[in-house]
């Protein structure tokens, strides 16, 4: 059996706004195993980013438990959470979140320095080289293309060799070709380090590269997403699952009626 790396148990998040209480997450249960890659898909506003922020301890749930690498995030204060993130997680945001007054190298080294990891600069330089940016190390974000900024963000996320990478639409702001190259880097590093990867994407092709996909809808996990299946195929698959689980499906009832056998008895 594999070890769980991330466990969300019955996560609810409600925020009180101008027009009353808003239920943003309504009972999210999700487990991601060590070394697994998981895509979260689903419509805009369904709670994907919020779920990721809860995994990162950047948002606290109203109720429910969050465990990462066996640690209960709910029991940690803000300082402990910040330390935990530095040593266990890399986060890649859709809009890069680089510090504009720091070079690519300084941006990449920053979390390593915060975590008091020795040889931060040298490690950051290695991480930049791994994403093909050795010759851009001393450029500021404004001097880098969108793709180069996102590769810097990836280098920063991987520099401390975290157990977990959380990526929120990492290619959302990039053209298709640049996005694909960045994703190739992401999966290459994930395989090399055995990192647990959770990524949010609207790109079916990208989602299909993950071991597993879940779809969110309306603040919940709506089910396992199967790319390329039509509604009909999904229904057929559900019927098949029902049958395997021993439920009486519609067809089975009909068969029972025509054979005169009582429902629920199997030969
Ligand atoms: N800080 C907040 N205050 C109020 N509503 C929020 C806040 N953050 C997110 N929401 C709402 O929660 C819902 C889920 O948002 P989000 O997790 O960003 O969805 P997704 O990433 O799937 O598009 C949306 O309806 C959004 O407007
Ligand atoms: Mg989002």
From TrEMBL:
PROSITE patterns per the UniProt record, alphabetical: ABC_TRANSPORTER_2
GO CC terms: membrane protein complex; plasma membrane
Domain called ABC transporter: residue spans: 6-243
Pfam families cross-referenced by the UniProt entry: ABC_tran
Annotated signal peptide: none
UniProt xrefs under CDD domains: ABC_MJ0796_LolCDE_FtsE
Record's protein name: ABC transporter
Native source species: Desulfovibrio psychrotolerans
């Amino acid at each position: 059996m594999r070890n769980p790396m991330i466990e969300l148990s019955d996560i609810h998040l409600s925020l009180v706004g101008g027009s009353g209480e808003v239920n943003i997450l309504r009972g999210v249960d999700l487990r991601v195993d060590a070394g697994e890659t998981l895509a979260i898909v689903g419509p805009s506003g369904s709670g994907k980013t919020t779920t990721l922020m809860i995994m990162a301890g950047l948002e606290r749930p109203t109720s429910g438990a969050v465990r990462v690498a066996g640690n209960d995030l709910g029991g940690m204060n803000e300082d402990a959470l910040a330390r935990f993130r530095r040593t266990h997680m890399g986060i890649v945001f859709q809009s890069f979140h680089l510090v504009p007054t720091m070079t690519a190298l300084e941006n990449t080294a920053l979390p390593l320095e915060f975590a008091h990891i020795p040889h931060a600069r040298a490690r950051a330089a290695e991480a930049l080289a791994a994403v093909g940016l050795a010759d851009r190390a001393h450029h500021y974000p404004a001097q880098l293309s969108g793709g180069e900024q996102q590769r810097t963000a990836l280098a920063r996320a991987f520099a401390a060799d975290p157990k977990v990478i959380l990526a929120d639409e990492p290619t959302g702001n990039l053209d298709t070709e640049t996005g694909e190259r960045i994703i190739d880097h992401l999966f290459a590093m994930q395989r090399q380090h055995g990192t647990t990867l959770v990524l949010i994407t609207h790109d079916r092709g990208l989602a299909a590269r993950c071991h597993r996909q879940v779809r969110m809808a309306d603040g919940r996990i709506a089910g396992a997403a199967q790319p390329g299946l039509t509604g009909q195929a999904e229904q057929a698959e559900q019927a098949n699952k029902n049958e395997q689980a021993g439920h009486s499906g519609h067809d089975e009832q009909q068969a029972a009626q025509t054979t005169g056998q009582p429902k629920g008895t199997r030969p």
